[in-house]
Amino acid sequence: MKQKIDKSCGCLIEDILGESPQKSNKQQTIESVKKSDRLCPTSPQDVEIFVDPDVEKISLDFYQKKYTDGLPIVPPTKEKVNKFYKYSAYEPQEVLALLPPRQGKATAEKIAINGVMAGCLPLFMPILEKAILGMSQPQFNLAGVNATTHPVAICALVNGPIAQELEMNVGAGCLGPGNLANATIGRAIRLCLINIAGAVPGIGDHATMGSPVKYSYCFGENEEESPWEPLHVERGLPAGSSAVTVLGMEAPHNVNDHRSQKAVDVLDTIVDTISTAGCNNSHVPGELMVIMSPEHAETVAGEGWAKEDVKNYIHEKALVPVDLGDRGGRRLDKKWLKEDMVSLTRSPEDVIVIVAGGPGRHTMVAHGFGTSCESVTEALVLKDGSFAGSVRDYIKK
């Protein structure tokens, strides 16, 4: 009688999340798992990504090995990971980028694994891949972002039709909880930084206190209610295209102005909130993110202000006294001085103006990492030139 083979498997994905030896890679993995006292005999193709089906157990095991952000994860089974490849522009073992400080190889497979762990749908894979490519560009300076004691985090902004297809939140509460795409895409990016780049808090990530936005920092621009062209179009991509922009930003700070009826008054409230000592911009001027609600944007644009006018005004007015600005981690360069004041931005282009959110006369502002990080916009060009479907259709399957 032919013996029945138990196909269940409890192997971890340590060799996948880590760097496996190059020699006989698959055979090396097979032999190592066969020697483990946790595993049962399986065929070679069953041991690569399968994990213990006990979700609580595997979440705690991954947590103890510093593979998570502290929250429970979705076990990355082979079946779940394989679904992501349908939406990938790369082969599973193809290296998209090397991510510091560990110089980890960001393959499509590893990105998919972290996407599964974060709770992403396979549809989100193109955004994850482009976000990884963006943050790997030299001007983004991921090595500095990961290694600094400053609480800078990776913010991902999605533009274009793909945001609507994924049912991303671009309106009320877009920076908060409650939306699958916003929450899990941002989380997957952070898990990639932990597991591929090696940015484990206190080890590769040296932020003194960290930040809540290091869990997830992802939203879409409210293009329908914006009086101005969206960010990706401003940066040269065609209208109707989709893109993701990665930015190195602090957590956003609210600007509450319900009473101002004139554009200049609204902008002055925003400028006054931005102009604070102690941010990186006060001693190494760089990018700022200004997220205006549709109501604030309507007030400003209603008086004929173009986005360029807004950027120019904030650049000219966002200043702090020199004696306060020159207290940061790097000596203040005199070229940024305006008499006894220092500018928070190098040029109007450092002022990144976005329209998002819902009803309410609020704006949110976020300081950047100074001159040490510049945002990168990546076009989302899919295999057939169009998106593969909506979240709603995917869930119905």
For this entry, give a set of tags:
13 strands; disordered N terminus
The quaternary structure here is single chain
Radius of gyration using CA atoms only:
23 Å
Shape: globular
**Mean pLDDT over all positions:** 87
Tally of alpha and pi helices: 15
Low-pLDDT segments = 1-48
Q: Quote the beta fraction.
A: 5-15%
In whole angstroms, the N-to-C terminal distance is 40 Å
Total number of strands: 13
* Helix/strand class: alpha+beta
Order of helices and strands: HHHHEEHHHEHHEHEEHEHHEHEEEEEH
What's the story with the biggest beta sheet? 4 strands, mixed
Q: Strands of the largest sheet, in order across it?
A: 4-3-5-13
Q: What share of residues is helical?
A: 25-40%
Please provide a written account of the structure.
α6 (125-135) crosses α9 (180-197) and α11 (263-274) packs across α13 (307-317). The chain is built from 15 helices and 13 strands. 32% of the residues lie in helices and 15% in strands. By secondary structure, the chain is an alpha+beta fold. β1 and β2 form a beta hairpin. Strands 4-3-5-13 form a four-stranded mixed β-sheet. A four-stranded mixed β-sheet has the order 6-12-7-11. It has helices at 14-17, 25-34, 55-64, 78-85, 108-118, 125-135, 142-147, 161-165, 180-197, 231-234, 263-274, 294-301, 307-317, 322-325, 391-396, and strands spanning 95-99, 104-107, 153-159, 218-220, 243-249, 253-256, 288-292, 319-321, 337-338, 341-343, 351-355, 362-367, 376-379.
